[in-house]
Amino acid sequence: MGVRYFSSLDAVAKAANVTRLTVYNQFGSRRGLLEAVFDDIARRGRLGRLDDAVDDPDPEKGLEMVVRIFCEFWDSDPAVARLHGAMAIDQEFAQALVARNERRLPLIGNVQTSSDDLARESIRKVAQLVRT
Can you give the three-state secondary structure of 64-100, one letter per residue? Predict the structure, then answer.
């Protein structure tokens, strides 16, 4: 389903062949619907594996896992790659996606690290990559 289908709850209801009230009762708002769609994309893209990456006692291995997980995620479905393009045409969509990415950043900062400045700088760079 393309971004154009998310232009309103009415459009989603029509595409799903249900009433607007049904969509509203299920998701509460367009933002709630977007969050549910993002949750489904994350689940199908197996982003839940990030917990294993940040819990790995080896910081290098943990960061490698984070990068691999995100590369696999962005390659998992052509629709995922179009998310950033959709941000340009839909402000609410953009706000929801940016907020979601911002919530993910602290997770990456939790990768087990030594007190090494290089390790901290590497984590900062990975976090920037994830954000873009």
Answer: HHHHHHHHHHHHCCHHHHCHHHHHCCCHHHHHHHHHH
Q: CA-CA distance, 20 to 2, in Å (whole number)?
A: 18
- Asked whether residue 18 is domain-assigned, the answer is no
Instruction: State the Cα–Cα distance between residues 54 and 99, nearest whole angstrom.
Output: 20
Enter the tokens of residue 65.
């896992």
- pLDDT, tens digit (0-9, with 9 covering 90-100), for 47-81: 889 888 878 887 778 878 888 888 888 888 787 77
Within a domain: residue 123?
Answer: yes
Structurally, the chain folds into a number of domains equal to 1
Where in the sequence is the domain holding 54, given as residue range(s)?
Answer: 35-131
